[in-house]
Write a structure and sequence with these properties.
The chain is of the alpha+beta class. The protein has helices at 45-70, 102-113, 119-136; strands spanning 10-13, 16-22, 35-39, 145-149, 155-159. The chain is 35% helix and 16% strand. The strands form two sheets. The protein has a three-stranded antiparallel beta sheet with strand order 1-2-3, covered by helices on one side. Strands 4-5 form a two-stranded antiparallel ribbon. The chain is flat and about 65 Å long.
């Protein structure tokens, strides 16, 4: 019976899983559509479940922040909250980091290692790194991980 259950927030079209989620009514003014829907780029139910669950969690967190930002907090004018500007953030994953993003790193990697390689090498690299970007986000690469050249031409993500 569990075999017939679909992954949460997904549907299948031609064997490919898609993420779908309705935008809550109180947040629709922030969106151009009342539904968020996009391909999860997989035929695997397990992978689709993981990606859809992660996307749903990110949306829930973002929607929570939208709701609290818009909330009329009693006594809000009495709060002593310093408004941080993005330029003041100094941690490794700062907004203004000079480190290249993962997507830029992929292009550099292909420019250096992809010379005289087959088109399959380039496609595999872009697909593999696309999965990393899907999971980790396209953030600066100075967050303690590096893309490396593994055995057999496989691109790997290793901690530093």
């Amino acid at each position: 019976m569990a075999e017939n259950k679909t992954a949460p927030f997904t549907f299948q079209k031609d064997g490919i899983f898609y993420f779908v989620r309705r935008v809550p009514g109180d947040l629709r003014r922030h969106y151009s559509s009342d539904r968020i829907s996009y391909s999860l780029r997989t035929r695997s139910k397990t992978v689709a479940t993981a990606r859809a669950t992660q996307a749903a969690c990110k949306l829930d967190e973002f929607w929570f922040h939208l709701r609290t930002k818009d909330a009329d907090l009693p006594g809000k004018h009495l709060l002593r909250v310093a408004q941080s500007q993005p330029s003041e953030i100094t941690n490794d994953r700062s907004v203004n980091s000079t480190a290249p993003k993962f997507s830029e790193g992929v292009l550099t990697y292909l420019a250096l290692k992809g010379v005289n390689k087959s088109e399959g090498f380039k496609r595999t690299t872009e697909r593999s790194c696309g999965y990393v970007i899907d999971v980790c986000g396209d953030r600066p690469g100075n967050g303690g991980a590096k893309l490396g050249h593994g055995s057999g031409g496989i691109v790997s993500l290793r901690a530093e």
